[in-house]
């Protein structure tokens, strides 16, 4: 039995087109949503919401938002495979009636597989507001299904929907009951395919194999392969005849037929009351290319700055320092979220040292400087990631996202990216890991890989902390230069992001044309707090579980490497194991930057730790130099301005952190491409940093 | 008058005659409702991207870049 059947008595698959309001309804319907592993054979997490209804538990499985079932990306494959092979008891299809007849296209495709379906007409408040009269009785009669109207906004129809789902689950399963659309000249071919599939496939009980035959006839090669069919080889002759009969394109013919069926069957069931409907308005500000561009950038930048300001006080602390108000800046920084978290963990560390130092100083050090330090680092990340992601998902949920993508498309198209590439870029400012994952917004695989290869050039929040500390030291007393350097690093990162995307598109994939934009623009709305919370909290939790444990562990490893040497527990880090490893890396780069050996091993070790997680660059330097703060740690290194600048550039771009590399591999599923990306990034960073060093030496 | 969608004037209704994109894009277009005979209302056409509303202006609103719009042949009523 599947995991799902262990969790709940009944399983309901939830499927709908993008912008149908699935996330909002899903959250209201189920209340609690959990991530339950991945969909079989993919890296896509399965979100499951549980609801107890009438004393029995139902698991609602959130399938990806798709327009149709024929596979063009992994999203359709996941939904299609779950319908054909999944362990569900009923399928809930969401339809947005404001979209009109084409909003029922996915439903029709699902119905060709099964009629164990409940339809929810979403956004019912909007349907009425727009003056659309929907003849529900006619819809129920045409499809022979329970159809429930719901308004997630007003919380209406939820009980009725659950009731309908429950009675569908309880209804006896009549085998192979499905929607039949007559495809005329294609019918003999569909019969052959259905028979062939029947010979090979073991599918969920009650699934109509004709549904699979239709998808295969439409050219779903992935499904054909999964069912052991080779269309072009086995059926070459039949195919040629069928193509001729339908005038060339079978897929187009079937899509047209489904559309014609819907028009005929339900076209008259949905009418607009004359003069009622408000026009779909694209806000004027987004219509003008210049104001649209500026607005989009302003929205994204203010979003990022809000996240920064709440967490680290940046940019206000920097501005205050520029104005010579260092003490005010320090006070402000103390009372930002990361400041308060830092104070709390410092207090805990002192407490542990005071209590345990006299009896067992090794244990005290392990607990305070290893475990508590590690947990503190992870904790300081939580609010930051949460706030960044919350703002991002609010933008997406409001419908502003697509508008921004359109206005930014012109700029991005020059670099071989579509306007969709704006999300990975801005999310990467928070953290590269969700940034790489956000490449899923890409239009095609080539663009997606371009984004994956480029995302880690964008300095993330962790690198910002390193950046601020380094810049604060090497350019001490020059607040203007500090600001210019920081802006320069971000600007450089974005340029590298864009250039890399284009380079990979041209050189690796040999694609010359810019990607094309095809994007639905939903109506603007006030984002749903529940959806925003769920999206951001789920990803944050993911970070704490996946990255957090690794991070804490790592800090403890760093602690042991720096507190132990061949003589056992030591207080002088230069005698530790860390010194040995760091020296090896440090010595390799030392000659390039003329670094002294006592500094180079520390930097070498910090680089190693920074690969595991960027925030460790500073944390490690702090541990190695035996001081509290990152800034002071850098002072202890005694490096020159040119060395500092070169290090800064290298620290910023040198390699994606381990978590990002793992994510790159997870998203590309290719070790070769992953290694290529990592090697490319290291190469670029080294070249840049050396060039900067040479220039700085000459100028200094 | 049969023209590529990329040349369709704003506020006109355009009927799809033919979609000539590559297979992946074509599937997405068909799934969204860009089938033959579908009526699109052109909401915006600035030469770089074009925004249309399906079902004669009452359906879903979709933005297409010029490259895609060039490959969709439509008939525009005068």
TrEMBL record, chain A:
Gene3D superfamilies: P-loop containing nucleotide triphosphate hydrolases (3.40.50.300)
SUPFAM superfamilies: P-loop containing nucleoside triphosphate hydrolases (SSF52540)
Pfam family, one: FeoB_N
Superkingdom field: Archaea
GO CC, alphabetical: plasma membrane
Bilayer topology annotation: Multi-pass membrane protein
NCBIfam families, per database record: feoB (TIGR00437), small_GTP (TIGR00231)
Binding site for Mg(2+): 27, 30-31
MF terms in GO: ferrous iron transmembrane transporter activity; GTP binding; metal ion binding
Residues at which GTP binds: 16-23, 62-65
Keywords noted in UniProt: Cell membrane, GTP-binding, Ion transport, Iron, Iron transport, Magnesium, Membrane, Metal-binding, Nucleotide-binding, Transmembrane, Transmembrane helix, Transport
Protein name per UniProt: Ferrous iron transport protein B
